[in-house]
Design brief:
heterodimer, A: mainly alpha, two-stranded antiparallel sheet, B: 8-stranded mixed beta sheet
Chain lengths: 342, 331
C-alpha cells in the first residue's frame, strides 16, 4: 500500500488561507480598476486606507482576543464612549488636546480592564460580558451627551491627523502601521503570542503547561480597550466631530474581517497578516462598489458571500484530499492491481 | 511564503498607481456627473426625491449617482462623499445627517473644485454654495392659515396642536400663522394652543379634550406630524367627522386613511419629487456656471422660476394633499 501523494510545497502555499484571500483581493482590484475610471489612483488608495483605519485597528486587537477563544463585542461602543470622553475633557474640562487624548487612552484601558476583570477574574463568558458592556458603553456615551450634544471645532493640528496627507499618505496611516507591527510581533514572534495560541487550543492544557492564563487573557482585553480609544481619536479627527453614535456597528465589521482573515472563531489558530488582508478585502469592496457605481446594498450581500466562500474554501481542499485518499484506499482494496500500478 | 506575498502586494500596488497616471482628468467629457445623497437610502421620502432627481437628470442629459448610507454608521456619509471626490464628480448634493461631521468632507470637495449644495437639511454654510430649502417658515404658516380660512369660510374658532411650547421652528411658524390671521382673517379666533410632545396618543387625548371644552370649534390645526393622525382619530371617535375639520403638516402616507374617510381635509407638506428635481437642476446649473452666488432667481427647467434668498434656493409654497391627489404620493 502506497501512501496518498504528498502535496508539494507549492500546492500547500497556494492552498493557504491567506493566499486565497490575497487572490480574491487582487481579483477585486483588477475588476474595479477595469470598471472604475479613478479606482486605481493614488487618491483612491489613500481614501481606502483612511477609511479602514478605525475598523482596522479594532480588527487588529480583536485578533489576539479571538485567538484565545474569546470575543469582544463592546469595542464599537467603546469607540463611541471614548470619542465623547475626549470631547468632554477637551471642551468642557478645558484640557489640552494632548492631555485629553492621553486621558482618553486611559479611559479606554480602564474600560478594557472592566471586560478583563469580568472575563479573566470572574470567569464569565466573554460573549455575555461584552454584550453587557456593549450596551453599557454606548449608554454611557449617550447619557453624557443626552444623545444630541456634538463636540466640534477641534484645532487644526488635531484634525490634521484625520484629514490631511503627508507625501500622499494619510496622516493616520503611520499610526495604523505601528499598531499592526506591534500586534504582529506580539502574536507571531513572542512567547506571549504562543501562550495565546495555547490558551485558544485548550485553556486547561495551557494552565497545566504553566502559562498564567488569566493574566494573559486580561492583557489582551485591556490592550483592546486602549486601541479602541486610539481609534476613537483618529475617528474624531477624521470626521471633525465627536458624538455618541461614533463607531456604531464597527465590532461586527471587525469580527467579519478577522474571521475572513482565517482566524478561527473557536480560538487556537489565527494570523495578523490574514486579518489585515481581511480588512483590505472588505474596504476595497466597499470603496470599489462606489467606483463601479453599484448601490451600497450590494456591499452587504457580497461581504456575506465572500465570508462564506472564504470559510468554505479553506475547508473544501482538505475535504477533497480526504475524499481522494479514501477513494484511493477503497479502489486499491477492491483491485490490488491498481496498487501495483501507482 | 511571506516574500512572495510581499512581492505580489507591491506588484499590484505599483500596477495600480501606474494606471492612474494615464487616466487623469477626463478630457473632453461634457456630460456633467451629479451625486445625490439622501440621509438614509430606504426612506420613502428620499426615494420620492430620487424620482424627481432622475427626471431632472434625464432632461439635462446629466449622469446621476444616487447613493447613501444603508447602515447606522454616522461616518458613512463622509466616506461616500470622499469617494465621490476621488471619483471626480462635478457636483455633490447632500441631505445632511450630521451637520458638523459632513461639513468636513464637503469643504474638502469644494477645495477640489467640486460644486456642493445641500437640500432638505443643511450643512455649515461655508461648506456649500447653496441650500435648497424645501419650506420657509412664512410659506408653511401662510399655507396652513389660508387653508384653515378656506375651510371655515374665514370665520369661527380653531385650535392648534404643536409638538412643544419650546420648539423653535414651531414657535416661528405659529408667529407667522398669528400674523396672517390678524391681517387677513380677523374673524377667525384661535381658542387653544396645546403641546403633544410629538406623540400621537398624547395629541389624540389633547384633541379629545379640545372637542369637549370648545363646542363651537370648527377646525384643529396640527403643526407637528404625529399630531395630524392623532387629532383625526379623536375627531373620528367623537363622531364629529365633517363638523370639525382637521388639517396639518405631515406625511401623506400617515394620513391617507383619514383623508379618504373624510376626517382629515388636507395634509400640507412639500412635493418631495419637486425637491429632488430642483436640487438636480440647481446642481447642474452650479456645475456649468449658470448659477452663481448673488443671483435672486433661478429657472429650474419645467418647474419654472424659483426665488433665491441669500444662499438659499426656496422650493416655494408647500403642497396641499387632499382626497383628490393623495393617492399619487407614496411617502
Amino acid at each position: 500500500m502506497s501512501p496518498p501523494p504528498i502535496p508539494s510545497r507549492w500546492k500547500a502555499l497556494l492552498l493557504r488561507h491567506e493566499s486565497i484571500l490575497l487572490l480574491v483581493l487582487i481579483l477585486e482590484c483588477m475588476y474595479f480598476s477595469s470598471v472604475g475610471r479613478r479606482f486605481a489612483s493614488a487618491d483612491n488608495a489613500s481614501d481606502i486606507l483612511r477609511h479602514s483605519v478605525e475598523i482596522g485597528l479594532i480588527a487588529l486587537v480583536l485578533t489576539p482576543i479571538i485567538l484565545t477563544g474569546g470575543i469582544d463585542l463592546s469595542l464599537g461602543s467603546l469607540l463611541g464612549l471614548c470619542a465623547v470622553v475626549f470631547g468632554t475633557l477637551w471642551r468642557d474640562a478645558g484640557l489640552s488636546i494632548e492631555l485629553a487624548a492621553l486621558c482618553t487612552l486611559g479611559v479606554g484601558g480602564l474600560a478594557g480592564a472592566l471586560n478583563a476583570g469580568l472575563i479573566a477574574g470572574l470567569k464569565l463568558p466573554p460573549l455575555i460580558v461584552t454584550l453587557g458592556t456593549y450596551s453599557l458603553f454606548r449608554g454611557l456615551a449617550e447619557a453624557m451627551t443626552r444623545g444630541v450634544d456634538t463636540f466640534t471645532h477641534f484645532p487644526e493640528s488635531f484634525l490634521f491627523i484625520g484629514q490631511e496627507s503627508v507625501l500622499g499618505i494619510p496622516a493616520q496611516a503611520p499610526l495604523f502601521v505601528l499598531v499592526a507591527l506591534a500586534v504582529w510581533l506580539l502574536v507571531h514572534r513572542t512567547t506571549f503570542g504562543r501562550a495565546l495560541q495555547a490558551i485558544g487550543f485548550s485553556p486547561e492544557g495551557a494552565r497545566y503547561a504553566g502559562i498564567p492564563v488569566s493574566r494573559r487573557i486580561a492583557a489582551v482585553y485591556i490592550m483592546a480597550g486602549v486601541v479602541a480609544a486610539l481609534a476613537a481619536l483618529t475617528y474624531t479627527a477624521r470626521l471633525g466631530q465627536a458624538k455618541a453614535d461614533a463607531g456604531t456597528g464597527y465590532e461586527l465589521l471587525a469580527i467579519t474581517a478577522v474571521v475572513l482573515g482565517g482566524t478561527s472563531i473557536f480560538g487556537g489558530k489565527g494570523s495578523v497578516p490574514g486579518t489585515l488582508l481581511g480588512v483590505a478585502t472588505l474596504a476595497v469592496l466597499s470603496n470599489g462598489l462606489v467606483h463601479a457605481r453599484q448601490p451600497r446594498e450590494v456591499a452587504g450581500m457580497l461581504t456575506g458571500a465572500l465570508l462564506l466562500l472564504a470559510l468554505s474554501s479553506s475547508v473544501l481542499p482538505k475535504m477533497f484530499a480526504a475524499w481522494r485518499a479514501r477513494r484511493h484506499t477503497q479502489r486499491s482494496a477492491i483491485d490490488p492491481a491498481i496498487t501495483e500500478d501507482t | 511564503m511571506k516574500t512572495i506575498l510581499l512581492f505580489l502586494l507591491t506588484a499590484s500596488l505599483s500596477l495600480a498607481s501606474g494606471c492612474n497616471r494615464s487616466s487623469g482628468p477626463a478630457a473632453g467629457a461634457e456630460r456633467v456627473t451629479i451625486a445625490l445623497m439622501p440621509k438614509s437610502k430606504g426612506n420613502a421620502y428620499f426615494i420620492s426625491c430620487r424620482t424627481g432627481a432622475e427626471r431632472a437628470a434625464r432632461e439635462l442629459g446629466a449622469d446621476l449617482i444616487f447613493d447613501g448610507p444603508t447602515d447606522p454608521d454616522p461616518a458613512r456619509q463622509n466616506e461616500i462623499v470622499e469617494n465621490w471626490i476621488t471619483l471626480g464628480v462635478d457636483a455633490i448634493a447632500v441631505a445632511c445627517e450630521n451637520k458638523e461631521g459632513i461639513s468636513t468632507a464637503l469643504r474638502k470637495a469644494q477645495a477640489r473644485g467640486i460644486k456642493v449644495l445641500t437640500y432638505d437639511s443643511d450643512a455649515a454654510s461655508d461648506a456649500r454654495s447653496f441650500f435648497v430649502n424645501q419650506a420657509s417658515p412664512v410659506g408653511i404658516a401662510h399655507t396652513l392659515m389660508d387653508e384653515a380660512a378656506r375651510l371655515c369660510n374665514s370665520e369661527g374658532e380653531f385650535a392648534i396642536i404643536t409638538a412643544s411650547l419650546t420648539a423653535a421652528n414651531m414657535n416661528e411658524w405659529q408667529k407667522h400663522i398669528e400674523a396672517r390671521r390678524a391681517t387677513s382673517y380677523p374673524n377667525m379666533k384661535m381658542v387653544a394652543l396645546r403641546p403633544c410632545d410629538d406623540l400621537k396618543d398624547r395629541a389624540q387625548s389633547e384633541a379629545t379634550q379640545l372637542l369637549a371644552a370648545h363646542p363651537n370649534l370648527k377646525l384643529i390645526m396640527a403643526i407637528c406630524s404625529p399630531a395630524v393622525p392623532g387629532a383625526a382619530e379623536a375627531v373620528k371617535q367623537a363622531g364629529k367627522a365633517g363638523r370639525v375639520q382637521v388639517i396639518g403638516l405631515g406625511l401623506p402616507s400617515e394620513n391617507r386613511r383619514y383623508v379618504k374617510e373624510g376626517v382629515t381635509e388636507s395634509v400640507i407638506l412639500w412635493k418631495t419629487e419637486d425637491l429632488g428635481y430642483l436640487t438636480i437642476q440647481a446642481a447642474h446649473a452650479l456645475a456649468t456656471g449658470k448659477l452663481t452666488p448673488g443671483m435672486s432667481t433661478f429657472k429650474a427647467g419645467a418647474l419654472g422660476e424659483f426665488e433665491i434668498q441669500g444662499d438659499e434656493i426656496l422650493l416655494g409654497k408647500p403642497f396641499i394633499f387632499n382626497k383628490e391627489n393623495i393617492d399619487q404620493f407614496d411617502f
